[in-house]
Amino acid sequence: MLALFFVPLIIINTGIVTSPWILFMLYITSGLGMSGIGMGIMHDAIHGSYSKHKKLNKILGLTFNLIGANATVWKIQHNMLHHTYPNIEGADDDINQPFFLRFSPNTKRMKLHRFQHLYVWFFYCLSTISWITAKDFVKITRFKNMGFLNKRNEFKKELSMIIGWKLVYFSYALILPLIMVPQAAWIVILAFISMHLVTGFLISTVFQVAHIIPDAEFPMPDNKNTISGDWHTHQLATTSNFSPRSKVFSWLIGGLNYQVEHHLFPNICHVHYRDISVIVEETAREFGIPYHSKKTFVGAIIDHIKMLRFLGKKNVAGI
């Protein structure tokens, strides 16, 4: 995946590419590699599950910085908030979306949400463009106000790191190609954007179809600000697997088709999820706990569309 991302960019930066079509092809190929880095390398590494060696996990977690995002922001948003509070309105940052998207029945419905199952794909495509530009700055400021990054100078240090890594990324992914490629600047910029459209679509779709589905629950805290039941049952009730029998697909997306196992055991490398899933499913059935799984990725996407349509048409709290 690292080669799939960097080799096309190296070829682009040599200046030997003269055809716009080849330029687009190389950038899109790099986008596939970027998706692979996000799902198959940095995701496990930031969870501390890629390797038993902490230093190696930290180094590989920085591959997220290399593709224009920020590992620290992701760790807070994903590891701390999403994994602790999946599908809980106001706590799970993955369902805290802009006003034009409604990912929870506990979010206020607007008229434009009727069409979100149609236009959401456009915003999925733009998601990593948002990451490399504004999202990290917005998130890190919000997380500081929430009480994270409260050590002395920690916020300033992380902010400087974000700026520094983004300068590195834009230097080799866009600025150098603008200098080296014998094409109009707008063509190079469009090719660069096409890379992110591919990456954004793939990553957003894979992550969202595991939680925003009709079978998933969206619990709300009681008056004491607590969720009924235990943490493990909550993970099973709010999460779904998809395409569990495809080894190739599982390799391509870093085992994220086994979302149930990942949410139960985020500190275990994804290469073990296929074997673990058999035990988890049997145990869930034994104790009458829901175990959600779709046979195919297409089936999961269809369920996701159904849920988005439901959320767009209904103004109800809870499912």
Strand order of the largest sheet: 1-2
Secondary structural class: mainly alpha
H/E element order: HHHHHHHHHEHHHEH
Low-confidence stretches: none
Largest sheet data: 2 strands, parallel
What is the strand tally? Answer: 2
What does this protein look like?
61% of the residues lie in helices and 2% in strands. It is mainly alpha-helical and 319 residues long. It has a domain at 2-196. A two-stranded parallel ribbon has the order 1-2. Helix 6 (116-145) packs across helix 7 (154-180). The longest helix is centred in the middle third of the chain and has 30 residues, at 116-145. The chain is globular and about 60 Å long. The two termini are 39 Å apart. One of its GO terms (cellular component) is membrane. Residues 20-294 form the Fatty acid desaturase domain. The chain crosses the membrane at residues 118-138, 159-179, 185-210.
Produce the secondary structure layout.
Blueprint: H1 2-13, H2 20-47, H3 54-61, H4 63-66, H5 71-82, H6 116-145, H7 154-180, H8 185-208, H9 231-238, E1 240-242, H10 247-252, H11 259-264, H12 273-286, E2 292-294, H13 297-313
Parallel strand pairs: 1-2
GO molecular function: oxidoreductase activity, acting on paired donors, with oxidation of a pair of donors resulting in the reduction of molecular oxygen to two molecules of water
Keywords: Membrane, Transmembrane, Transmembrane helix
InterPro entries: FA_desaturase_dom, Fatty_acid_desaturase
